[in-house]
Amino acid sequence: xxxxxxxxxxxAAYITRSGKPTAAEVLARARTSGRPALQxxxxxxxxxxxxxxxxxxxxxxxxxxxxLTIDSHTRLRRFESAERAxxxxxxxxxxxxxxxxxxxxxxxxxxxxxxxxxxxxxxxxPRELFATAVASGVTSFEGGGISYNLxxxxxxxxxxxxxxxxxxxxxxxxxxxxxxxxxxxLFGTLTAxxxxxxxxxxxxxxxxxxxxxxxxxxxxxxxxQGGHLxxxxxxxxxxxxxxxxxxxPGVEVHAVLHExxxxxxxxxxxxxxxxxxxxxxxxxxxxxxxxTKTYQEAFGIPDAAANAAGLRLASVAGSPLLDFVTVxxxxxxxxxxxxxxxxxxxxEPVLSAPRLDSAVVTxxxxxxxxxxxxxxxxxxxxxxxxxxxxxxVRYHSPGRLPLSRASAERNRRLLGxxxxxxxxxxxxxxxxxxxxxxxxxxxxxxxxxxxxxSPATPGKEPAP
Length: 464
Ligand code: 5AD
Prior knowledge:
Blueprint: H1 8-18, H2 23-33, E1 37-39, H3 47-61, E2 66-69, H4 72-75, H5 79-88, H6 98-101, H7 103-112, E3 117-120, H8 127-136, E4 140-142, H9 158-177, E5 183-186, H10 197-214, E6 218-224, H11 229-246, E7 252-258, H12 268-284, E8 289-291, H13 304-316, H14 329-351, H15 356-366, E9 384-387, E10 393-397, H16 405-415, H17 424-435, H18 437-441
Parallel strand pairs: 1-8, 2-3, 3-4, 4-5, 5-6, 6-7, 7-8
Antiparallel strand pairs: 9-10
Bound molecules: 5'-deoxyadenosine.
């Protein structure tokens, strides 16, 4: 039997005396330096294998933070299935089952590497996982009551996931009072399929407001690279402005870029060009952190060598020699103005309600909040995104989102015509092309491509 989980006071004392920097400290330092902190995803089932993976990544890739990516059984609280897999064949797990291994092994991993650890998972109810993470000395925890429910689960009521995550956030508040600031990273990537920036940011604003009210003191707002430089830089630079507008003072907020989360080119060179482009985007957008990808992305979970290569490639974009790389500031300014405006139009009616959590539930049920291609019964998924001719992600249809007429018309104009000029089969084909944007840009044939997320299979689970 594993020893009883330490109390919060004991865990806080362990973290403080470990002498390791917390994730919040690493992020603050990165923001000041102007060079995004780098972090890979990584997780395997076996404990010894996980330890070896972390050591290899630290040695070969020099990340600023490391990850424990958690397996699917644990994400869904199927702890017995995780245990069975560990007993029979740990290689069948798609991540590290931290709850099953227990907090003492968690501490072993934490003490093995110099950099702080983050948990990335995808759980609508992460309470046991969070408790084990804190006891392990992990100082960053990804997810949120909206962003770890709607993209992943078919039928978990939003009220349930919001309540579970509120407990996590309240515990972060208690930890802050004990002197340990946990970083809470929100999953703005959502379904990872053509997510309009204002939807990603609106969901993050709502989760951040709830987290701050519960006592969270450090929030990382992650945003998925869409692939249009001015739009992505504008979205990243909007994050501190949204924080100033909607969050109380005293909450640290960091912008985080997820390197492209959609269908990746298969060719190694093409994949590496996209990775480098993502890393430059993070730098130009002033991100505190970049979550990296690898040249094996099109084929599944990367091995350690590819993962380390992805880190090294991303770090090249941080070189002081690249100070000459700039972005069209006028285009960024224009995008940013509209991103802020659309985000305000989406979040402000919800924020003005007396109770945030019930307002979120009602708004998703009515489609006034929405995310594209959601698997969940608790979101309508009536929003239809498209890429415009320059590659930026726009609203082909905003569904029932309360966008102003000016915002809706601008989206329509940039897409080049009235919303109903593409429908049925031609809309489906156009969406397919938008989703395959990067492989097509590089001249790769979509035939035979591994099945990426497609509008025909909206339930496909994005990995966190
Ligand atoms: N280790 C490394 N990367 C992982 N991903 C999912 N699970 C793991 C894991 N255990 C990555 C996928 C994809 C992203 C969404 O998450 O490879 O790049």
